[in-house]
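REQUEST
  id: r-88c1
  op: predict_structure
  target: Rieske-type oxygenase
  payload:
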Amino acid sequence: MTISDEAATREPARVRDDGPAARTAYPVGEVPVLSGRVDRFVGLPMPKRPDTATDLSLRTRVRRQRGRRFPFPIPNGWFIVATADEIAPRETRNLYYFGKDLVLFRAADGTPHLLDAYCPHLGAHLGVGGRVVDGTLQCPFHGWRFDGASGSCVEVPYDDVDYIPKTATARVYPTIERNHMIWAWHHLEGSEPFYDVPDVPEFHDDDWSPIVVREFEIATCCQEMAENNVDTPHFRFVHGTPAVPEEEFHTDGHYKRTVGMDGNFVREGYGLGLGVLRVKDYTTFLSSTTPIDEENVHCRWIFTSPRRAGEGVAEAAADSFVAGVSQDFPIWENKIFKDPPVLRPSEKGITEHRRWCAQFYSYPDA
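RESPONSE
  id: r-88c1
  status: 200
  body:
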């Protein structure tokens, strides 16, 4: 994505339409017809299609090869699983993230908890008829109650045996509520968090505008999206920037930082899928890329802008960034992961970034 004014105002060429077959394959966009059929979207730059962020039926998806697309599992890290305002105390919400059916609930005191959906007793889905009782979730099948913090069964209501085996435990995911969002920690081996979700003070500052949230799904993975940030040549060819941007990039443990535009553009990354971007006097935006499974992600972007910048700036920033990332959708959803890639000397940042990403994966079955 790019914030280039030139790229933001550039209009794509008109559509060439060779009848219903072409319109069915590519409902809107920039498509040439070769040998009597639609072959590809025209790029250099790619057309901006912000409508494809929310309407998946408009996406260009031509990749048909089957088999595993990426050589790594779902990463370990903090990911948004809900906005804070979409679930009230004593409510439940059924989710599908990390390749699993999950249940999110708020305890009576408002604390959010996330559990695997299936009761360890006989496998009932805890979110289909389950009931929140204080800080527990009660199974609709036999009334067993599971503590939201530990997942342990704390009550079997129909017999007099006090002993409850440790195996009567639902997997829980550590959760925190921060930046108007509910975050869950995912780790393939169940290990505790090894970094934290940063607090973004602008989201709670009266000198900054109310937040604007955008969300969309993409058929890709966290690492592919994150790699875009160090793949500077793509900004010229996908987004139409007049030149390849020069940026400083460094990493430190789970943390990475990119600085551009003479220090006016600062992007901080925390693990795979969590980033905070600040563009001076324009916007601050937090991004979370939550794995749905190994090949699909759910993105939530949260924007604010300084009030002194004027009314509607955060909304305009959100629209601009979504329009920019829509140029990446056809690339991400139709590419494969090349390992090893064939790189030019100037693209060493991609190799460095891939080494940094490796720390966020576990291989428990290896």
